[in-house]
Specification:
CATH topology: Rossmann fold
Helix content: 40-55%
Largest sheet: 5 strands, parallel
Strand order of the largest sheet: 2-1-3-4-5
CATH superfamily: Response regulator
Radius of gyration: 13 Å
Distance between the termini: 30 Å
Number of helices: 5
Amino acid sequence: MNYASILVVDDDELIVHFFKLILEEIGYDVITAYTGFEAIEKANSKKMDLAILDYKLTDTTGDILAIKLREINDKTGFVFVTGYSEARDKIIKNNLSKHVVLKPIKEEELIEMVDLALHEPEMEM
């Protein structure tokens, strides 16, 4: 059983629901948010081991949100999910995370990336 807390942040409700179902089924505690503001509120009230962030949100970008979440808890790991290959390159170049997945994402790919992000050391911001 997995006991890590995972924050899923995406403005697409179907993606959030899909990720939540998959991750809860394998034992993770999943908290969801649809905006950066909501994600920060939730991170302030509960420790998150990992945040899965969409790169382009309605009120911010995933890279800015990651920096704010890291200020709340410097132990939070990150997985970025994006439909933009240039965003992937920027995330890696700026040492925000080495865990970046391009949409669309398959169930097995999500599980593998979460497992890697929770068990491998993260890049320093």
